[in-house]
């Protein structure tokens, strides 16, 4: 019975992976999403986005970053995030803040830099993008 259960899970994962790869190939673009809980991680994330843009060339698509957890408190610190916001703009990277995290840690979305977007639920948003064929990683 265990073997049947594990085999079923493996088959479902394989089908999901094949479907995701097919969606990505159909669009002709490589799209990426990164979920992070640490503001300092934005630097290597943005460097990776720039390098992927070079490697992918005209196949480079959308690159989204979602900041979740306590790190959203730091998104109101202009000094801390101004360089990241500038780099993200130059690299065509969208930085999003998790709305649930903003609420949990008492951060008013009005205090965020105007270029930052707010998504209601960062984890759900990540899954939705994965279903659309985005490659995803969590840091």
Automatic annotation (TrEMBL):
SUPFAM superfamilies: DsrEFH-like. InterPro entries: DsrEFH-like, Sulphur_relay_DsrE/F-like. Keywords: Signal. Residues 1-22 form the signal peptide. It comes from the Bacteria. This is DsrE family protein. It comes from Salinimicrobium tongyeongense.
